[in-house]
Amino acid sequence: MTPESPVPYRLTRVGVVMTPEPGNADEAEGVLNPASGRGPDGQLYLLPRLVAEGNVSRVGLARVVVEEGVPVAVEREGVVLQPDRGWERGADNAGTEDPRTTWIEALGLHVMTYVAYGPLGPRTAVAVSEDLRAWRRLGPVLFRYQDDLDMDLNLFHNKDTVFFPEPVTAPDGTEAFAVLHRPMWDLGETKPGQGVRVPAGVEDERQSIWISYVPVASVRDDLANLTLWEQHRFVAGPEFPFEAVKIGGGPPPLRIPEGWLVLHHGVTGVIDSAFSQQQKVNYAAGALILDATDPSRVIARTPEPLLAPETDDERSGIVPNVVFPTAIEEIDGRHFVFYGMADSKIGVALLERTD
Questions:
Q1: CA nearest neighbour of 263 among 211, 344, 213, 324
Q2: Residue 189's pLDDT is what?
Q3: What is the distance, to the nearest Å, from the Cα of residue 217 to the centroid of all Cα atoms in its chain?
Q4: Whole-number Cα distances in Å, 170 to 212, 221, 268, 276, 302
Q5: What is the mean pLDDT of each run of 10 residues along the chain (355 residues)?
Q6: What's the rounded Cα separation, in Å, for the pair 263 and 65?
Q7: 287, 304 Cβ separation under 8 angstroms
Q8: How far apart are the first and last CA of the chain?
Q9: Are the C-beta atoms of 244 and 238 separated by less than 8 Å?
Q10: pLDDT at position 109
Q11: DSSP H helix total and E strand total for the chain
Q12: What angle is formed at CA 340 by the lines to CA 9 and CA 92, rounded to 5 degrees?
């Protein structure tokens, strides 16, 4: 790494792999922000967010069609998660949104984080699967209280959550599963009049990337403990112009020689209500490199986006001007990034080193 090239990677567009299917009611308002994984059959699958009329989201399953080492299309295989639990539905809203899946070899499971759009708004939840088809809900995430923060993180909506693929060392020295997340500090979105509240020591009220940990030993005792997160730490906040409003995590962190590569999104523009489909924002993809032994520490980041909304598919859609990376997969020795395009379609880009 050099000051001129602090993150030695680039993204190059390959094409569009999934668009809404005409006549499919589950996709009336777009297909976007997919998770991904390899099934027991060795095939590569996407788990796209499917949005029906009324902004009701489900998680689908689609096999990726690869031609000459490049993903070019998908074949749909149905819906694998939908808002059929009471806490995933409100009086006028419902959704299982924005899945991120990580294959954790130590557990022999795909671990999905997703957003349950329930009675009080968006809440992070966890589900697990052996085959990407049958998902067992472990329930909503709970943040263990941490007195030095002077704040209960359970008060806040939280999105953009994703697990690391292998255990790391937690701040207390124990072996732990780590997870990135992005608290939303505006309590007025839940209870009008409460305004923005932040933990002790946080001076920037803009939404940022945090990390929490789950002791491996506790998960071995009871898999449901994957939902009990602790030892919360700030990782990175907005720093460069393309991140002026907020930042959030993307695909599962990718192990690279320098540490952990984290693709993230930076947002500019004007945010309306957190629950509305934004019309005055710009989402672009950047990257962080986190320390290999202490993933709460950023050792490099991109001062400019690796990919910004420039094509018609990225600039025009349900939410215009959006590039939103959510999955990375290796195909024939090369890494491809799948990303949401204007909250309407799914694109793919090649991730390559530049050194």
A1: 324
A2: 87
A3: 25
A4: 9, 18, 33, 36, 26
A5: 77 98 96 98 98 96 98 98 97 96 98 96 96 98 98 96 98 98 94 95 96 98 98 97 97 97 94 61 96 97 97 93 97 98 96 96
A6: 24
A7: no
A8: 8
A9: yes
A10: 98
A11: 2, 23
A12: 145
Q: Which amino acid is at 73?
A: A
Closest CA to 347 of 333, 45, 266, 322: 322
Q: Are 339 and 346 in contact (CB under 8 A)?
A: yes
Of 259, 261, 241, 258, whose CA–CA distance to 250 is shortest?
261
* CA dihedral sign, ordered 192, 194, 197, 200: negative
- Measured CA to CA, the distance from residue 348 to residue 14 in angstroms comes to 6
User: Would you say 95 and 77 are in contact if contact means Cβ atoms under 8 Å apart?
Assistant: no
Supply the pLDDT for residue 270. Answer: 72
Quote the pLDDT of residue 79: 98
Residue 326 has, within 13 A of its CA and on its CB side, a CA count of: 33
**Listed residue (199, 284, 270, 208) closest to 239, CA to CA:** 208
